Amino acid sequence: MAVIYERATQVVRRIYERRIATPPVLDPQEYFTGAPRFVAAWPELRAEALAIAADLARVPRFHELMPQQADVSANDARDWRMLVLKAYGVPVRGNQARCPRLARLVESDPDVLSATLSFPAPHKHIPPHRGPFRGIIRFHLGLSVPLAADGRPAAVLTVDGCEHRIGDGESLLWDDTFTHEVHNRCDAVRIALLLDIRRRGMPLDLALLSRAMIRGIGLAVRWKGPFGD
Fold first, then answer.
1. I want to staple 221 with a disulfide (CB 3.0 to 4.6 A). Which of 90, 127, 137, 200 is the partner?
2. What value does the mean pLDDT take over residues 20-43?
3. How confident is the model at residue 226 (pLDDT cuts 50, 70, 90)?
4. Which CATH number fits domain 2-224: 2.60.120.330, 3.40.190.10, 2.60.120.650, 3.30.2350.10?
5. Integer CA distances (angstroms), 179 to 154, 159, 162, in order
6. Interval 1-28 mean pLDDT
7. Read out DSSP for the chain?
């Protein structure tokens, strides 16, 4: 199954990459106008996420939600847990009830297709990998990011060979089809909000293809229910 998934995503990536040549890091003013509302609410979102982190055993590991991602999530003995509030347009009501402020923000923005709280364990390394297709872009908001000895955020996101240290209340909008990896170089869990955003401004045929793919994956999510409470 993992081989089929990877081959399918490779085909889809090539279709989009031939037509969309935007850089790895994108301008929120152009691609995600809702970003300031999430950034402004980060202290409240942090409080909700910390309450979740107090009982991480209730939060599934990424590969428990998506077994085809085991090589990314279960690559070492350290957890990468993810609380999914929305997946390809499908709300996960039980998880949203645990984070009502975040849920309201997510449901008020039609461009937010997926929303996840990400909890990589201390010293977790998420190895290099790529997202499935450029019809979706990734918004990353730091909620609880431990600091290194030099005062900088200890968690490092590397996108297309460039390091980004995204601290509390800081954000980055980027294209996750570029190779990326994460090192949580500290003794505490790092917490971030990850949003998948609908890419606007694509050629009509790619926009229609993206709509069909998002709808199809959303139907599969509803049918299989892999992101349950």
1. 90
2. 97
3. low
4. 2.60.120.330
5. 20, 6, 10
6. 81
7. -HHHHHHHHHHHHHHHHTT----SB--HHHH-TTHHHHHHTHHHHHHHHHHHHTTGGGSPBHHHH-GGGHHHHSSSSS-EEEEEEEETTEE-HHHHHHSHHHHHHHHH-TTEEEEEEEEEPTT-EEEEE--S-TTEEEEEEEEE--B-TTSSBSEEEEETTEEE---TT-EEEE-TTS-EEEEE-SSS--EEEEEEEEPPS--HHHHHHHHHHHHHHHHHHHHH-TT--
Instruction: Please give the pLDDT value at position 228.
Output: 55
Q: For residue range 92-130, list pLDDT tens digits in order.
A: 999 999 999 999 999 999 999 999 999 999 999 999 999
